[in-house]
Design goal:
The structure is a single chain. By secondary structure, the protein is α+β, with helices and mostly antiparallel strands. Helices cover about 40% and strands about 25% of the residues. The chain has four helices and seven strands. The strands form two sheets. The chain has a five-stranded antiparallel beta sheet, sandwiched between helices. A two-stranded antiparallel ribbon has the order 1-2. A hairpin with a 5-residue loop joins strand 4 and strand 5.
Length: about 160
């Protein structure tokens, strides 16, 4: 793991290595304490890798303002964004997803994109990171086409 667990461009988003470490520990804690934990896998459908990375960074900044400080965020090698909502059951997590969708609707992305959100809950859909990731990717919640909104400034 690198010395700095956060990505340079955003101190709210963990590196993939730091995310994997903390996520593993939080899964163990959730199982021990019988608490809920929800994994969101957010994937933009951008045209190229560079464009996709930029969109993932934009999505990370939006989500960073909408979730609690204790929740985890990290990009993946597959140009996705993983978000872990700690102590969140599926119903409360769906409210968070609805709030995020509303933010996406009012945000002018640099590149038009479709955004897919997968969701999985521990212990309902699995108790380890890989099982939850697979379940989230299978349980795609929404896909929203985002088009440029003209010259309007980004919603804050």
């Amino acid at each position: 793991m690198s010395a700095d667990p956060f990505l340079d461009q955003d101190k709210r988003v963990l590196t993939p290595e730091a995310f994997a470490f903390v996520f593993s520990n939080e899964l163990k804690r959730a199982m021990r304490s019988q608490n809920f934990l929800t994994l969101l896998v957010i994937e933009p459908a951008s045209r190229g890798p560079a464009e996709c990375r930029q969109t993932v960074r934009e999505i990370g900044r939006i989500i960073g303002r909408e979730v609690r400080e204790t929740d985890l965020l990290s990009p993946t090698d597959q140009n996705q964004l993983s978000v872990v909502l700690l102590d969140a059951d599926l119903a409360n997590s769906m409210r968070v997803v609805d709030r995020l969708r509303a933010r996406f609707e009012h945000y002018q992305f640099a590149n038009p994109t479709a955004i897919s959100v997968g969701i999985a809950n521990c212990p309902m859909h699995g108790a380890d990171a890989e099982t939850l990731r697979q379940a989230a990717e299978l349980r795609e919640f929404s896909s929203t086409l985002r088009e440029p909104l003209g010259n309007a400034p980004n919603a804050q």
